[in-house]
Specification:
The complex is a heterodimer of chains A (91) and B (454). Helix content of chain A is 37%, strand content 37%. Chain A is built from three helices and four strands; from the N terminus they run E-H-E-E-H-E-H. With 91 residues, chain A is of the alpha+beta class. Chain A has a single domain, classed as Alpha-Beta Plaits (2-Layer Sandwich), CATH 3.30.70.260. By secondary structure, chain B is an alpha/beta fold. In chain B, 44% of the residues lie in helices and 17% in strands. Chain B has 15 helices and 13 strands. In chain B, strand 3, helix 6 and strand 4 form a beta-alpha-beta unit. In chain B, helix 8 runs antiparallel to helix 9. The radius of gyration of chain B is 21 Å and the shape is globular. The relative contact order of chain B is 0.13. The chains are: A alpha+beta (91), B alpha/beta (454). The interface between A and B is medium-sized, with 26 and 22 residues.
């Protein structure tokens, strides 16, 4: 399994999760876990996804997600490989 | 599984607190390029560097994108050129020619600095060492990316005072030859005592002769992250303060370790060390001086500064060595004046002097770094400042360095601007008392008694 963390930050609106999930489904990316909070009207979401069977290179995925976020939904989307978080927060 | 809080913490460090990997530096041995023919030597070096480093910048950018962590600089360090060029270079002009070629190839592979226009003369100078040293001012004036360093002392050998005296003149000459650009030449020249073989940071990086053919060394940074973390322990006792620095240094170093491992795999070059230094930049919030203030000082340079810096330096190391098995280079806190907004402010408000900075270098990882002084300071005075700093390194068995810039045509009250990461600096006053007769003595200062460990 090859895991990545997707974070979405932006003003809360209808269809944020739908927008991101539609894109992920289209590229065969399985969602393993979702958590979200809304702080002072700002939407904060984290997804743990499995990118091992996706049909596009990881670099393209991060760029595309960022574009979908800014152009289609109006939020900031980041997609990073999981190891950076694992190494920093787990011994 | 990773929690949303942990993810948010990491991304806040990157987005708001300037966490970054400061440099991926590829060390390349040029010993197998040696030739008695200058043209042949140049061609061999060019090929070796190009073949080794052609994918360095692209790979760095890919890793940066995959993990969402900025990797600010991609750089190259090479075997000290005095060793490589000795057989082919008959004059200082020949060494300048080598520097021009190094600058070209560095530009071709897209790195912003190449270090290793260096000589190791801690006990004595060979003819080629001296030719290289005398070539430094012109080499730095005519190139953009080449960095020079000279190791003039060590705990094991003592201090080569003939080299110290010569470097006083060379630093001044490097400043003179770039007088039209605020003497920027001197910003790319470091004089060392106990220079490490695997330092990834410029301008002092070179690829030591004890190193493998090629190696990747990583320099991490993150003064802003430490500063922000310390905001949560205001007024707490020293144990809590130390814990906080250690934990933060651990996290920062783990990112460096990750990038090192990835880069090593992707480039097929062995991983050398992670240098876990707190390296400031002129950006607001990326300052070591601000950390000292957060600990409780009104301004960097106030009484207590040396103790605060000693604590910081030691805790950074203690947190970092848990995060990576191969820690090396300089590792600690850097205190370059022109590259740290907090230090610049401290000089401006009069709380930080060269003498206080010298005391601080006894407990931090480098030395008198990026300090602008009046352009009319005598060569012998610069040599005296170098000698003092080398003595601190020699006696305390640590690396010390001097990167001092006599800014030609400017004096105290004015500022010098070097641009980019090199920043800008108020000109600092230097003692007006002479050390001519002392530094004009020839020979060496012997190694200290505690160097006899065999």
């Amino acid at each position: 399994m090859e895991r990545a963390i997707i974070t979405v930050v932006g003003k809360d609106t209808v269809g944020i999760i739908a927008g991101v999930c539609t894109y992920l489904a289209k590229h065969h990316i399985n969602i393993l876990d979702i958590s979200q909070t809304i702080v002072q009207g700002y939407f904060n979401m984290m997804m743990i996804v499995d990118v091992s069977s996706t049909d596009i290179p990881f670099g393209e995925l991060t760029e595309e997600l960022s574009r979908v976020g800014s152009e289609e939904i109006g939020v900031q989307i980041k997609c990073q490989k999981e190891e950076i978080f694992d190494l920093m927060h787990r011994i | 599984m990773i929690s949303i809080r942990e993810v948010a913490e990491t991304n806040a460090m990157i987005e708001r607190e300037n966490l970054d990997v400061r440099t991926i530096t590829m060390g390349i041995s040029l010993l197998d390029c040696v030739s008695p023919d200058l043209q042949e030597l140049k061609e061999r070096i060019r090929c070796k560097i190009y073949e080794s480093a052609k994918d360095l910048v692209r790979t760095g950018e890919e890793i940066s994108r995959d993990y969402g962590i900025p990797i600010v600089n991609k750089r190259i360090s090479v075997t000290p050129i005095a060793l490589v060029g000795g057989a082919a270079c008959r004059t200082s002009e020949d060494f300048v020619e080598l520097a021009l070629m190094l600058d070209d190839v560095a530009g071709e592979v897209g790195v912003n600095f190449l270090g290793g226009f260096s000589a190791l003369v801690s006990k004595g100078m060979t003819h080629s060492d001296e030719l290289l040293i005398r070539a430094i001012p012109e080499a730095l004036a005519r190139t953009e990316r080449v960095c020079a360093s000279v190791n003039v002392g060590s705990t094991r050998t003592g201090i080569n005072m003939d080299a110290v005296r010569l470097m006083g003149t060379i630093v001044k000459e490097a400043a003179l030859q770039t007088a039209d650009r605020d003497s920027i030449g001197a910003t790319k020249l470091v004089v060392f005592c106990n220079a490490p073989d695997d330092n990834p940071f410029m301008a002092g990086a070179f690829h030591g002769v004890t190193e493998a053919d090629r190696i990747l060394n990583i320099g991490v940074s993150g003064p802003g992250v430490v500063k922000t973390a310390l905001e949560s322990v205001r007024g707490a006792d020293f144990e809590t303060l130390c814990e906080c620095v250690k934990k933060t240094a651990f996290k920062v170093t783990r990112v460096g370790q990750l990038v090192a491992k990835e880069a090593s795999e992707r480039l097929g070059v062995p991983f050398g060390i992670v240098d876990l230094s707190l390296a400031p930049t002129p950006a607001i919030g990326d300052s070591v001086a601000d950390i000292l203030c957060e600990m409780g000082l009104e301004s960097a340079g106030a009484p207590g500064t040396t103790a605060a810096l000693a604590l910081l330096n030691d805790q950074v190391k203690k947190g970092g060595i848990m995060a990576s098995s191969y820690v090396g280079g300089l590792s600690g806190a850097f205190i370059p004046v022109s590259e740290d907004q907090g230090m610049i402010d401290a000089v401006r408000r009069g709380s930080l002097t060269i003498e206080k900075l010298e005391a601080m270098t006894c407990v931090c990882s480098v030395g008198l770094d990026m300090i602008a002084v009046p352009g009319d300071v005598k060569d012998t005075t610069i040599a005296g400042i170098i000698a003092d700093e080398m003595a601190i390194g020699m006696i305390n068995q640590k690396t010390t360095a001097v990167r001092i810039i006599p800014v030609i045509g400017k004096t105290v009250g004015e500022e010098a601007s070097f641009g980019g990461l090199l920043g800008y600096a108020p000109i600092m006053p230097v003692s007006r008392f002479s050390c001519d007769e002392f530094v004009n003595r020839s020979g060496r200062i012997p190694a200290p008694v505690h160097s006899f460990k065999n």
